[in-house]
Amino acid sequence: MKRKEEMTWWERIYIPEIIRGLSVTTYHFWRNLALHILHVFGYARDTRAAYTVQYPEERKRYPDTYRGSHRLTLKEDGSVRCTACFLCATACPANCIYIEAGEHPDPTVEKFPLRYEIDTLRCIYCGMCVEACPCDAIRMDTYVHPRIWGYSREDFIETKEVLMERSRKLAAGGRDALMIELLESYKAAERQA
Ligand code: SF4
Ligand code: SF4
Question: Would you say the CB of residue 135 lies under 6 angstroms from ligand 2?
Fold first, then answer.
């Protein structure tokens, strides 16, 4: 019996398939070139010349399950929810979470992080830290990807303040707030260059 994935005789001689592939490429090349020329003269503006997303002017909405930059969640009083238990740092396969624990002034809270840092150059965005946290204190639901430029390693270290600020901005501005801010910073960096 012939297996489904077996190539036909026509496919096995390759030449027709090569011609078919080239015809697709050639069609898109001439189509896009013609549309770009028409756009320059103000015609056919409603027809897209390319199918790629023209980032950063255009953006795709990331799926709800997207693992973006981290944030430290906050209690109702605005303080950090993290109890410096080190479970996230222990679970992290990239060893990129640094925590310094301190005694909390409130006797009902055992500890809190004096320092909480993530080295985003080492992070592999696996989400293990989020899974490991027993307090829902760290999340990756920021819908923003990490910064991609910097001049030293320190530029890529996200501190406790940065991670907490993300939670505040999300609460104030909604799901797109951090991405809008990131795109503004791209434009500002471009203006300075
Ligand atoms: S996402 Fe993964 S690699 Fe990044 S800090 Fe969390 S556990 Fe570590
Ligand atoms: S973020 Fe969660 S797992 Fe990590 S130290 Fe804080 S409470 Fe523990």
Answer: yes
Predicted model pTM? 0.77
Beta bridge partners of 113: 101
- Tens digits of pLDDT across the chain (193 residues): 455 568 888 888 899 999 999 999 999 999 999 999 999 999 998 898 877 887 777 888 889 999 999 999 999 999 999 999 999 999 999 999 999 999 988 888 889 999 999 999 999 999 999 999 999 999 999 999 887 778 899 999 999 999 999 999 999 999 999 999 988 888 887 787 7
Helix (H, G, I), strand (E, B) or coil at 97: strand
CA of residue 117 to ligand 1 center, whole Å: 11
Angle (CA) 51-56-61 rounded to 5° is 70
* Ligand 2 lined by 92 (C-beta under 6 Å): no
- Among 138, 136, 152, 116, smallest CA distance to 69 is for 138
Pocket of ligand 1 (CB under 6 A): 91-94, 96-97, 118, 123-129
Q: Which ligand is nearest to the CA of 111?
A: 2
